[in-house]
Amino acid sequence: MNDQTALITGASSGIGFELARCFARDDYRVVLVARHAEDLQEAARLIRQEFGDVDVILLPFDLSHPDTPERIYAETDKRGLQIDALVNDAGFGETGYFADTDIDTELRMIQVNTASLVHLTKLYLRDMVERNAGRILQVGSVASFAPSPCQAVYAATKAFVLSFTEAVQHELKQQKSAVTMTILCPPPTDTNFFRTAHAENTRAAAHAASAREVAEEGYDALMDGAARSLPTLGAKVNFFSSLLLPDSMLATLMNTQLHAAEK
């Protein structure tokens, strides 16, 4: 039996839930973090139904509150849990012209997508570096690579995650640490993201990738200690386009994905 523990945020659905499945399949103890206790309970039920008597711990915490990362860390410490793998998956978006969108929603987005990710990484990475063992998966997006009109704040948060992750990856190499950090950059994926972001009827939503496929490719990259995972052909096309095209053209292309899907 695997005696290791993985903590996954945003674990009640979508990519986070599918990543939790991957860890449970490999006999990790899984600590699931999400806002709603009832959604976590359903996620735990499905995992136990599929994988048997796996150890599933539920932490219903809202990462839009600045003190939540400290509370999560204190809770795992109180329970004597050593976090061997951290997955920062929690995040959400908002669609619309920035002049028209709700600032309170966007400030919560910045807190969840970037501030909480940095804070949780700081807390658990220090322990991993001290042990010289551990893995961290940061969930970015293909939006990390280009400005995205009508999702300006969301894309900016994901660009931050990419830059932050690549910088810390370099630091870990300089320190000759065995700890690895991987960034997963999925394409538009079939999750609750589009409903939450008010983008259900867009072209991006109509051609979304499978959350399971994205999660499994990201999990394999994490286990291999890879720096980056670009799951599916769509993600690879987005990445290489970002290397070849100017930002103005990339912004136009990203914006077309948020237009209404053709019927």
From TrEMBL:
Entry superkingdom: Bacteria
GO MF, any single term: oxidoreductase activity
Keyword annotations from UniProtKB, A to Z: Oxidoreductase
Stored InterPro entries: NAD(P)-bd_dom_sf (IPR036291), Sc_DH/Rdtase_CS (IPR020904), SDR_fam (IPR002347)
GO cellular component terms, semicolon-separated: membrane
Entry annotated with the keyword Oxidoreductase: yes
Xref: Pfam families: adh_short (PF00106)
Sequence similarity: Belongs to the short-chain dehydrogenases/reductases (SDR) family.
Name of the protein this chain belongs to: SDR family oxidoreductase
Lineage, uppermost ranks: Bacteria, Pseudomonadati, Bacteroidota, Cytophagia, Cytophagales
